[in-house]
């Protein structure tokens, strides 16, 4: 760095000593002031930049704080929804438990009914052997009681009956007439000691022809006997018909 002395020495080559000394002093002081001013300007720019960065940081922190507030509100909403879901699940679980208990009760009742029918079938079979009565007679006695019990049917008549099917008289083993909830109902019953699947299909076709010839009437099919093979039982269930056998009762 140049000093006042070195500058004055060079100026003495062209100027008198007082002027050279004054000019050297002015040059050095001006140079120092310029350096300090540049440093100050640079420092001012840095401070401004830091202030701007601080403002941006504070704005970002404010945004993050708002986002955090929204997140906490959403978490609270989700917690409330989870609470409602858990309460609903508990309600459904309780309803399921009640349903299972009801099914158990119905299964027990069905088992008791099955046993009762088996006992009744044994009694009927013994009575038939003792008195020589026909299976159709026992169907006429038993079926109305079962219909009253299972469907609340009010019986008007029960017995063999001849009905015109497509203009041709057709004999039915048992025809039960009555009402269910005040609506007239006719139940056509096929009575066989052993019912096969082919007999089920044949009788259901006859019942369908009766329905076609008597529109508007509620006509249902039923099968009564001592036994039926698995195919026959499936055909009966698939058709929505009723059946009464020694193995159980199925009345829709």
Ordered list of secondary-structure elements with their pairings:
Elements: H1 4-11, H2 17-131, H3 135-151, E1 154-165, E2 168-180, E3 183-191, E4 194-195, H4 197-213, E5 218-224, E6 227-228, H5 230-238, E7 242-245, E8 248-250
Parallel strand pairs: 3-5, 4-6, 5-7
Antiparallel strand pairs: 1-2, 2-3, 7-8
Helix pairs in contact: 1-2, 4-5
Question: What's a quick, concise take on this entry?
Answer:
This protein is α/β, with parallel strands linked by helices.
Provide a descriptive summary of the structure in words.
This protein is of the alpha/beta class. The protein folds into two domains: 1-106; 134-250, Trna Endonuclease, Chain: A, domain 1 (3-Layer(aba) Sandwich). Helices cover 66% and strands 21% of the residues. It has five helices and eight strands; from the N terminus they run αααββββαββαββ. The strands form two sheets. A six-stranded mixed β-sheet has the order 1-2-3-5-7-8. Strand 7 and strand 8 form a beta hairpin. Helix 1 (4-11) packs across helix 2 and helix 4 runs parallel beside helix 5 (230-238). The longest helix has 115 residues, at 17-131. The termini are far apart.
């Amino acid at each position: 760095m140049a000093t006042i002395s070195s500058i004055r020495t060079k100026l003495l080559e062209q100027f008198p000593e007082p002027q050279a000394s004054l000019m050297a002093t002015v040059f050095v002081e001006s140079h120092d002031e310029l350096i300090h001013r540049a440093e100050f300007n640079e420092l001012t720019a840095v401070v401004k930049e830091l202030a701007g960065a601080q403002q941006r940081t504070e704005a970002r922190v404010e945004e993050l704080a708002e986002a955090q507030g929204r997140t906490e509100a959403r978490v609270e909403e989700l917690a409330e929804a989870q609470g409602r879901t858990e309460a609903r699940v508990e309600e459904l679980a309780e309803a399921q438990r009640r349903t299972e208990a009801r099914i158990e009760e119905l299964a027990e009742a069905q088992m008791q009914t099955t046993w009762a029918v088996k006992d009744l079938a044994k009694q009927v079979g013994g009575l038939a052997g003792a008195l020589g009565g026909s299976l159709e007679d026992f169907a006429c006695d038993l079926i109305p009681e079962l219909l009253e019990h299972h469907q609340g049917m009010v019986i008007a008549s029960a017995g063999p009956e001849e009905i015109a099917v497509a203009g041709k008289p057709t004999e039915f083993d048992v025809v039960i007439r009555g009402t269910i909830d005040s609506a007239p109902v006719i139940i056509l019953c096929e009575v066989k000691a052993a019912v096969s699947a082919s007999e089920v299909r044949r009788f259901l076709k006859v019942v369908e022809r009766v329905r076609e010839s008597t529109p508007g009437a509620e006509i249902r099919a039923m099968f009564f006997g001592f036994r039926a093979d698995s195919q026959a039982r499936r055909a009966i269930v698939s058709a929505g018909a009723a059946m009464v056998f020694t193995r159980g009762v199925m009345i829709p």
